[in-house]
Amino acid sequence: xxxxxxxxLSVVVALATIALKTGAWWVSGSVSLLSDALESLVxxxxxxxxxxxxxxxxxxxxxxxxxxxHKAEYFSSGFEGVLIFAAALAIVWAAVHRLLQPQxxxxxxxxxxxxxxxxxxxxxxxxxxxxxxxxxxxxALEADARHLFTDVYTSAGVIVGLLAVMATxxxxxxxxxxxxxxxxILREGYGLVRRSVxxxxxxxxxxxVRAEIDQVLAGFAHRVIRIDHVATRRAGxxxxxxxxxxxxxxxxxGHAAALRAAVEQALMDAVPGLRxxxxxxxxxxxAHSADPDxxxxxxxxxx
Length: 303
Description:
Order of helices and strands: HHHHHHHEEHE
Strand content: 5-15%
Number of domains: 2
Structural class: mainly alpha
CATH class of the largest domain: Mainly Alpha
Strand order of the largest sheet: 1-2-3
Mean pLDDT: 77
CATH superfamily of the largest domain: Cation efflux protein transmembrane domain
CATH topology of the largest domain: Alpha-lytic protease prodomain-like
């Protein structure tokens, strides 16, 4: 199953989870179960938006976007993070209201049972999605999977807390648990937004990917060939590397181009989906890789 297929499945599971957790809150009146249901609503909105962005990300390059649409996935991650912040605020509002005006809880056993079942669904799907996110290097799929795992951890905390309420009769534990849920998902939302910003700011490739690139380039190192100014970036599922390759000025253009093609092929074989841009230069020529320094002020004339 491809990335879009898992996101479609995530939408279906989110709908089922919302129904189960809403039912759990309805029969019990627990505000912590309500907070859990609100987070599942965020899961649904995030999965729908992620699916939309993934569809856009796989579009081929065009005149307006010559480098493709791969960064669209980062919008999904950022959007889901913002949704998490909104859900956390709603949870805190409801929890504080219940803390100030306590209410008895009913049918907690049914509420807990429905929550456990929904958590099992989320956990299985999140594990499969995270595994595929690593295979396809999909930011959107990883964000949705990690949010689902957060939902599972949240539900586990809610269940433990409600069991404590049943054992002690302390109903004030219910809104306190809900506030704890809000703080936990705020942490996850911050992480999603940060990863989104990193991607949009052209963050370098992962250390293990850079190690693969360096290993390939080291294999082409020679006393008459020098490689420098290696720069990398990532955009969604794609990885990019730019570098300068210096060689003897006496080499023919065909010889130099053949070597460049060999380096590009080796890099693409080592890192699937990598796009390499190699600038060929004579050994004694340095390219301007940064803005030039401002001209020095002229020395004062001696009297």
